[in-house]
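Entry 14. Ran structure prediction on the chain below.
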Amino acid sequence: MKVSTTWLSEYIDLKGYTGEELAEQLTAHGIEVDSVLSTDELYGQESSLQETKDNILDLDLTPNRSDCLSIIGTAYEMGAVLGRYMDSNSLNRYNVSSYNYSPLNSFSVNNEAEQECKCYALALIENVQIGPSPLWIQHRLSALGVAPVNNVCDFANYIMLECGQPINIYDADQFSGAQIQIRFADEENIMTADGLKRTVDSTALLISDGRKPASIAGIANAADYEISPGTHRILIESAHFSGSVTRKTSRKLGLRNEKTVRFEKEINLEMILPALLRVSELIVAASPGAKLSGVSHWQYAPIEHKTIKVSQEKINRYLGTEISGEQIEAILKYLHFPFEIPENSVYLISVPKRRGILARRSISSRKSPDCTAMSIFLCLWYRALQHQEN
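Output, structure tokens:
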């Protein structure tokens, strides 16, 4: 995962640190940084591709740190490392209550696979003009290794990189009816956007218009539904697709991309609607005359929130440290992990959904603590070491 320090700084204050120093801090705290490149090195000092002077950190993420597969996720981690809070104004970009929108009445959804698609959201934008995206979007995508395509696709990729939620976009006029089906395949042939005919078996999840498949869910669009220069109505999809189903299908087809990587790791269900609203806002703002006609959101399973119960004594015994209660509370706040203290020196920690997939068992279990627990332990440990050194 490549991250831009300029982009990161919209969400967390990085003043006082060079790119190399930030890389050292992350690596010391368990997030390996393979390299640091300046945009001068990427493009040359006089290149017009530069937005501003920037540094690109190439993160080597372990499987349990999929929460850092986004700018915002990395910013949360950076805040915990540096002891700085996230910028609330920037986070409000993903606050659903800050958006005004009407329900989408022109399309309905028939979900035949509610366990494999627990949440599905759509937005319809009309009068879109397809063309190049604004230069600032092209700059940011190029710096992170994503080739610009057009204004619609580029904003979708931008949002995925920023918040971690994959966004898919269809040519709305290619849908034969008003109902979208989410179903498993039936040994069907699909011509994907790369021009190859692919056969999908009954383990593959499809998005269909009732006549034929519009996409292999979370993996690739059918060629007929792709955005073209003549597209004027777009249907934007933001959804949850099962990580195991996505992984199995993408491997069978030999199709793996930035979207599948994120679905395979299980995405944050709470980000599905906010990401859809933000990408819709950006597309409308960048396309004169474009209009958001409606947004709809279907939740097929409740969002479960995990909690971890751990005592100050257990933390210190496990780490071999003497962290005070005040230190523990400060670090949890930097991590943005809500917590309560139901009894003296015992913490009931709520795991945010962006990390919830890792919260599989309690720290108090006799077995080894899970990855989220280890993350808390390590953050507490490193912060304690810094405190002791100071």
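The CA atoms of residues 184 and 203 lie 6 Å apart. Will compare against last week's run tomorrow.
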